[in-house]
Give the backbone structure.
Amino acid sequence: MRAIEYDVLLLLIIASVATHAIADDGASREEFDRSFVVGCQQGILESAVRDYAKLSGIESSSISPKVREEIRLVVAPVFPSCLCLRDKAAAQSGRKPETGAGFSVEFLARSKECAPDVETLANIRRRWQRLMQKAPLAQTQGESERQFRMAVIVATRTFKRYPKEAAQQGLQGKASIRVSVNEYGKIMSCELKVSTGHEILDTAALDMVKNAAASAQIPNALRGKEFAVDIPVSFVR
């Protein structure tokens, strides 16, 4: 669980408070304390929320306030580390009052005494496991591919176009278009796998599926993975 890993905790602290609380030469000690602790605790919570969403195969934005509160209670025992690290950072900044930039990742990385003890981490892991047992099951890749495939098929209805010339000639046929997606969620290609037997219909099918695929949402479970799905298209009068 990344939210309780010490190196991630340090990165969260740097990202959320270093510029605001330390680089501001005019900030008072009270402002420093408040900004540091609030930013640190919020960073820990948001990291845990992202982990929960990733493992559950859902969007972070769809997590209910009730579940967010349950996650906060699980990671709350890590929060005292923020107080320890705040004092370490304040002490270092105080040694170099002429330059707020004196704050460094390396300094905090050496503050191992601020890390939660082994028993605390073990308790957090147990509570996290119990929380995840109640979470929605993450979809398998196969299930997620079927979900994306169905989303593209539904979207083709919006973009379906029966070429007027083909309709006038009474042309009909069924095509299959292979949609390939890279690990970044970008549509890499739409290729004709099975032809209708008519070039004009094949072209129309490719255009339909390209537009439909671009509009369909890719499930979380497929993020970071390459995959391909075959989309059927029918032209029947």
Notes: The chain has two domains: 2-134, 141-235.
